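User: New here, any thoughts?
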Amino acid sequence: MTPVLDIVFSRWTTPILWTLHHFGRQRFVQLNRNIGPITAKVLTQRLRQLERDGLVTRTYHPEVPPRVEYEISELGRSLAPLFAALTDWSHHHLPEVERARTAFDTTAP
């Protein structure tokens, strides 16, 4: 289980995969813009790792200037039910989590 958690739930993996799944094939700048507050260095590192893991495909177009596009792979798309289940869980249970946190914070010494 630990290797799966390391792959899927590292800090930026989920936002990157969700963005590629939602918006489709994107160039680096588009992806960076759509994800939000991630540095170019971290995005590059995560994309390389996701490509290595087979979750993202990178397409290099030898043009002038060169163009690179990223796309979620079929393997990456296979995680969609997992993300859907997490989204469903969050809609149903995050209010409970918030209530538990509030109760804890008001009673904690």
About this structure: The helical segments are 2-8, 13-23, 28-35, 40-52, 74-77, 80-107. The chain has a mean pLDDT of 92. The first strand starts at residue 26 and ends at 27. The two ends are 36 Å apart (CA to CA).
